[in-house]
């Protein structure tokens, strides 16, 4: 994990975290932060090649990591994932709904299959995973759910109708589940990251067949992110770790914006 270790290495000792989409990008950053804080981390992905490399790296840093292949769009597969992790580790203290799909597409020509692919991954998958983990957490006396949202739907974003609609649904789902499951000792929150240059974001700034345009990306930072830098996956991971810790005991139904001030500032051209 890049950046300093900011939490004690035993903060989450004895806790078990399940991170969907945990093999790359923000999901890997979250898994790395949780592992560094002492949690046992199960990372899930529908692509096993992502899981193997991520698990090897986390273990090389001293983490206790297991992997599970799943497709969050399929409730039966999600159920098997949760059963597997609970059986292997005896409990699930934290679920991080990070798995997502996205791509730029004009709304006028967006196909039904393309719409379903993103909405089913981002919104349906968040619900399926949360629903599947609920009985495990309820039986053990409680747990934490953190879903990864976005900021683009707060003001709308061209070519992102499928993703913005799905993530708006994630926000609403977060608040509703927080109310329903508070009595079961389960807190439910979401984090809305701003611009973090994962491979998907870099692709959005790069014409097909060309190398990433670093000056153009730096120019975006200068005009649109008040703190003056891109986000990093661990910026999200640190907040997830905080919410998973005892400091998060009384926090539920909240959507946390982590974006260096870019949502407030807008695109200051």
Strand arrangement across the biggest beta sheet = 3-2-1-4-5-6-7
- For the CA atoms, what is the radius of gyration? 18 Å
CATH class of the largest domain: Alpha Beta
Q: Please give the share of residues in helix.
A: 40-55%
Low-confidence stretches: none
* Net shape: globular
Order of helices and strands: EHEHEHEHEHEHHHEH
Number of helices: 9
Structural class: alpha/beta
Gap between N and C termini: 33 Å
Major sheet size, sense and barrel closure? 7 strands, parallel
CATH topology of the largest domain: Rossmann fold
Q: Report the CATH superfamily of the largest domain.
A: NAD(P)-binding Rossmann-like Domain
Overview features:
2 domains, 7 strands, 269 residues, alpha/beta, 7-stranded parallel β-sheet, 9 helices, Rossmann fold
